[in-house]
Amino acid sequence: MRHIDFTPLYRSTVGFDHFVDMFDNIFTNQVSQESYPPFNIEKIDEENYRISIAAAGFSQDDFSIEVENQQLKVGVQTSKNEKSAYLHKGIAQRSFEKRFKLADHVHVTSASYEHGMLNIDLVKEIPEALKPKRIEITNSKTINGKIS
């Protein structure tokens, strides 16, 4: 695999270190990411998202979901104490950890587990101070609504 050097970007940008680090992590971890368990990321509407993880064979209590530093971490720790002797084991019930980088102002609102699917609902809440404001254009003769 070809390695891309982002060092020149560090010299020409100030305050965008996390973007350069994010691109660097994407390219270095792209091959090593594990596909177990499969998951979907769904955009429900402009503000709402859902992450669905197919995790059959687990109970609701097996999962741990944490958010720290704008990173969502979903994991399962399984015990190695299997008492059954399987003739064929096709259902994977191994430990896993999935990490999702959350954008600014994206928050986890709820999580549910039903029929082998772990659903995590997220919402993007932009503060009023950051929303676009419409500026009224006035005549140069009009100041504060009064004609001068």
Describe this structure in words.
By secondary structure, this protein is mostly beta strands. It folds into two domains: 1-33, no CATH class; 35-78 and 93-127, Sandwich (Immunoglobulin-like), CATH 2.60.40. It is built from two helices and nine strands; from the N terminus they run ααβββββββββ. The strands form three sheets. It has a four-stranded antiparallel sheet, with no helix packed on it. Strands 3-4-5 form a three-stranded antiparallel sheet, with no helix packed on it. The chain has a two-stranded antiparallel ribbon with strand order 8-9. Strand 8 and strand 9 form a beta hairpin. It is elongated and about 90 Å long.
Number of strands: 9
The CATH class name of the largest domain reads Mainly Beta
Class inferred from helices and paired strands: mainly beta
Any idea what the CATH architecture of the largest domain is? Answer: Sandwich
For the biggest β-sheet, the strand order reads 1-2-7-6
Note the beta-strand portion: 25-35%
Q: How many discrete domains? A: 2
Q: Which residues form runs of ≥5 with pLDDT under 50?
A: none
User: What gross morphology would you assign?
Assistant: elongated
> Measured on Cα atoms, how large is the radius of gyration?
23 Å
Query: What's the N-to-C terminus distance?
Result: 69 Å
H/E element sequence: HHEEEEEEEEE
Overall residue-averaged pLDDT value: 80
Treating each run of at least 4 consecutive H or I residues as one helix, how many helices? 2
